[in-house]
Amino acid sequence: MKNCTADELFAQHDSVLAHSDEYSDTIVIKYAKGLKVDYKEDGVHVSICNPDPNAKMKKTEEIVISNPSSRFICTTALQLGNFEALGLEDKIVGMNSLKNLFSPKMKEQIKNGSTVKIGKEGNFDLESVVASKPDYIFVSASKHGGFEVLKDCNIPLISHHGYKETDPLGQAEWIKLIGILTGETRRANAVFADIETKYLKLKDEVAAQKSDKLPTVISGRQIRDGWYFVGGKSYMAQIFSDAGTEYIMKDNSESGGVTEDFESVYVKGLNADFWQTDGAHSGEYTLNDLAAEDERYATMEAFKNNQVVFCNLSETPYRELGGVQPHYILADFVKAFHPELLPTYEPKYYKIIK
């Protein structure tokens, strides 16, 4: 495997889970800033905090896990994706009402009643929550106030801060928390090792190109009151760098999304080689669809050169699995920016649109 090219490595379809027994049952955190794990006599001690460097609240949650749990409620698509990546969807007994649900197993579980819909933030069905008898409920730090009512159910809440990690591998590493909670630590180590190996292999191959002039990339587009783009210290900005590009907004200090007035971003991105953006669109999204949103888009170099990389959130499971599959997102960008490195790879989320 060490001698494989990244293209060959991504083409392998051998089941990672089939070899999970070969991995350690001890969890070691390597990249995630919001997780700490300590093994003690009374169980596994896990410290959870918000890893966002700009977070105003740095409250740390401490949980002790002495026995595996098998019943969980997820309140975001990304939390679901953590279970999905490990093949543990059967342990989800409750799920918020997602607009787009892609997991075939979750669809079947909701259909047969083994997983119940609990409503949405601010309008949870507490009777369904209690009736599903969860051991834990995962909540999100990005929401404010909507989860307070769940405390009345007297069920332990766990904040899932994976999406706040700025290191792509750090975000994916939160699957190890699921491994600890469910007792499937070997499985979590196996899956993460596969993600890490593929990500780093491709990153190293890109770096080995040693180009004097990197292609440039701009992100986002007009959303309501301004041009929304990913911050220069964000998860996505790191993937841009690892994919061998120079991000136009790299000097921005934000770790999340940023909104600035249209003109200021437009001027900076006008001559960028590539343009990354996403959105929910029914069916195929084209350059014509993009230009219809604002005629100025058609004047951008990336648009004129057919180098717009788009992820259709309505047609791909990005919200569920993107956070735990940074190796595929990286590969999607490398396929667009440096196609010669991945000649046979088929993009999973982000694709050049025409």
What does this structure look like?
The structure is a single chain. This protein has 13 helices and 18 strands. It is α/β, with parallel strands linked by helices and about 350 residues long. It has 2 domains: about 5-195, 3-Layer(aba) Sandwich (Rossmann fold), CATH 3.40.50.1980; about 210-350, 3-Layer(aba) Sandwich (Rossmann fold), CATH 3.40.50. The strands form 5 sheets. Strands 6-5-4-9-10 form a 5-stranded parallel beta sheet, covered by helices on one side. Strands 14-11-16-17-18 form a 5-stranded mixed beta sheet. Helix 6 packs antiparallel against helix 7 and helix 7 (about 185-205) runs parallel beside helix 13. The longest helix has 23 residues, at about 185-205. About 45% of the residues are buried.
Reading side by side through the largest sheet, how are the strands ordered?
A: 6-5-4-9-10
Give the CATH superfamily of the largest domain.
Nitrogenase molybdenum iron protein domain
The CATH C-level name of the largest domain is: Alpha Beta
Cα-to-Cα separation, first versus last residue: 36 Å
CATH topology of the largest domain, what is it called? Answer: Rossmann fold
Whole-number mean pLDDT: 94
Number of domains: 2
- The percent of residues in helical segments reads 25-40%
The main sheet comes to: 5 strands, parallel
Enumerate the spans where pLDDT stays under 50 for 5 or more consecutive residues: none
Shape: globular
Helix/sheet category = alpha/beta
**DSSP strand tally:** 18
Radius of gyration: 21 Å
List the helices and strands and how they pair.
Blueprint: H1 6-11, E1 35-40, E2 43-48, E3 61-65, E4 72-74, H2 77-85, E5 92-95, H3 104-112, E6 116-117, E7 119-120, E8 123-124, H4 126-131, E9 136-139, E10 157-159, H5 168-172, H6 175-182, H7 185-207, E11 216-219, E12 221-223, E13 226-230, H8 235-242, E14 246-247, E15 257-260, H9 262-269, E16 274-279, H10 287-293, H11 301-304, E17 308-312, H12 318-321, H13 326-337, E18 350-352
Parallel strand pairs: 4-5, 4-9, 5-6, 9-10, 11-14, 11-16, 16-17
Antiparallel strand pairs: 1-2, 2-3, 7-8, 12-13, 13-15, 17-18
